[in-house]
Every structure is written in C-alpha cells, then in structure tokens.
Amino acid sequence: MNRQAFVEAFQAQLSAKFNVGYQSWWHKFLFHYSDISNIISVLNTGKLYSRNKAVELGLMQNDNADDDVIGNTGLNAKDYVRFYFGALTPTQYHNEGFKAKNTIQHNAHCPVPVFLLFDFVKLLSREDSQFSSGNIASSGVDIYDDVEALNALEFEYIYHRGSTHQEANPRHITYCRHAEGLIPNALNIYDYLKYVCVRSEAEKQTLLHHLDANMKQKLEQKIRIRTNGLFYADRFYIETVRLIDDIFSITFSKATSDKFDFVFKITNNDTKQSYKKEALQVSLESKTVTFKIKAEYVSANLSLQIKIDGSLAYEHNFGDDMNYVV
Known about the structure:
- By secondary structure, the protein is α+β, with helices and mostly antiparallel strands.
- The protein folds into two domains: 3-225, no CATH class; 238-320, Immunoglobulin-like, CATH 2.60.40.
- The protein contains eleven helices and 17 strands.
- Strand 11 and strand 12 (247-252) form a beta hairpin.
C-alpha cells in the first residue's frame, strides 16, 4: 500500500471511530493557527515557514508562543512547520484573544487568532511529512516519518477535550492533545489549504483588507466565520463594525471589566487625510460602542483601523462594500 492509500485508509478509521462532536470532522484536517498579523503574511506569500525560517526572514509579526516553552524547545523542533491534529488545545486556551496586560504570562498571547485548515491526506502523504506523539517541545517525544506509525498515536487522547480532573493520566492527555504533523522548513500552502477560519465578520473584513488583490480573489470563498470546534471564543474580540452616516457602531464579543488601550484611526481615502481617537486604559460596560466621525472626514470611501493594546484588532475600507448607508 502506498503512502497516500495508507493515509486515506487511516482517515477512514478515524471517521468511523470518532463520529460525533468536533472530532467527527477534525479528521479531515491538520490545523495551524497564529495571530492575524502573521497569517496575513502567510497568505500573501503563499508560504508557511518553520519558526527559525520565519524569524530569519523577518516574517513573524506577532510571536504568540510562551517564552518558557520556546526556551525549552530544541533547535531541530524550530526547523519544522507545525500543525495540530485537533483544535482547542491547552496552548490555544492560554493564548487566544485579547488579554489584559497584567494577565499575560511569558508573552503567550495571540490577540486575533486565525486558523488555517489543511488537507489531512495530502499533507501526510508527502514523503517528507513527519508527525509526533505529543508536543515536540516535550522531552522524550516520539517523532515518526514512517506513515504506518500513525497507528501508534493515541487519538483517544489527541482528540480528548474537556476536563481531565477525573482522569488517571491528565498530564499524558495534555501531552497527547498537542500531537503534531511536521513538515521541514517551509510549505507552499495553496497546494493543501482548504479553509481559513476566523471568529467574526469583523475579523474576516480585516483579513480581506490586508490581502493582495489576487489573493483576495483566490481566498474569499475559503474564508469562513466559525467558532464551534475551532475557537474558545470566550475572550474579548470585535464581532461587527457598522458605519451609518457619520456614526461608527462597534460590537464586541462581550463587555469586560479588564482595561485596554484603544486607538481608532479614521481615514478619508478621498482626501488621504486621517486622524486618531484614543481611549486609554478603559473597560467596556456595554458590548456596543458608538462614536461620531469628525465632519471633514465623512466619506463613502472611509477606512477604520482599531488597535487594542497596540495589536491590530480591525481594519476595513467601507468604500469596498455597501455597509456605508447614506
């Protein structure tokens, strides 16, 4: 049996064994997520690089990894492009979404996570693909290149989600949840990419705003808004932004008592003039915030950029769609 035929047969086994919940479709994909600032670069270049290569090329705009974990990760591990077998990992739980500065530990922070979903069979059928039994930052991790070793992976733990408090081996389950697919150095993503997933309409607009014109056309139908089975979606993010006459209305995922620095940049693309509105160290008593635009900046060709604690949260040119209501 050749490599692809084996992976197809193995995927069919996963489909039969895990036929309810998120896992009923997780087996179709390998998952990679990062902050939107990094994903913009990945989608525009069409390349996903290993950590070492991305740093060398200056392509890592947001380093969302835990400093302690990265410090303990061997150099060889940093030479792989890494994919999870499932979403909603413990690492993702600690990193996902905007967090108040005083709650961020070891710089582990992914303010606007975006998921790339890759074809399980095509990626693992590559002759250079490898995979691990757990987190490759862990000591004693097993890394395989023989595709038949997929049978050695503990998918009952890799796909395990929910509390581990009642389990006999919680640390091992956590280790397995981070099992990874591995490609050396770099990957041309468009041979394997199935979907790009974000949490909200606002984040989809932001991603599209930053894509090159040809990439936007290529990817628009692949960008999906989906939280179930991919994101914890329990932290602070922007859901929608509306422009009606001279009023912006911004809906967040929730109100919060945490304090953030908000910077709103409004640009009239007809006159090329812009100004900034700042709200520093404020919390939100309501999910929806509105503010009025200065009269001289009102235009059907208006852009809004929002940064939260210095990280990109939203950007869109309302001249590109019909959201502007006269």
